[in-house]
Amino acid sequence: MSDLNNCTFIGRITKDATTEMVGNKGTLLTKFSIANNTGFGQYERTNFFNCQMWGKQGQALLEYLKKGKQVGVAGVLENQKWTGQDGAQHDSWTLTCNSITLLADSKNAVKEQVNAVAGGYDDGGNTVF
What we know:
The protein is mainly beta and 129 residues long. The chain is built from 2 helices and 6 strands.
C-alpha cells in the first residue's frame, strides 16, 4: 500500500514566476514561491513554499503568476537534501504542483481573470467564451 502525499496551500506569490527548459528533451519547468499566512495575533506566522510545475500548463500560467497575486496550489511535497561547501547539511521542500488556481483579490481582479481566460464581456455584461 502506498502512502498519501497531497498538499494544498493558498498564498501570495513572492516574486514573478520563471520558466526554463530542462533536460535533453527541453521539458518546460515553471518555478515560483508563495507566502502562506497562518495563525492569528501573536501566533501569526508566514510559511514560504517553493513551487514548480512541469510542462506547458505552467508556461501558460506564467503571465498570471506575478508577485502579490493570490493563488491556490495543490500537488506533491518533495524534500531535497544536500551538503554545502562548508560541510553543513541542508534541506528544502518543494511543492510539485498538479494544479494552480488563480484567486481573485477583488471584484476587478475577478473581471481581469475572466477576461484573460474567457475573452471578455459582451455589451450585456455576459461572459464571452
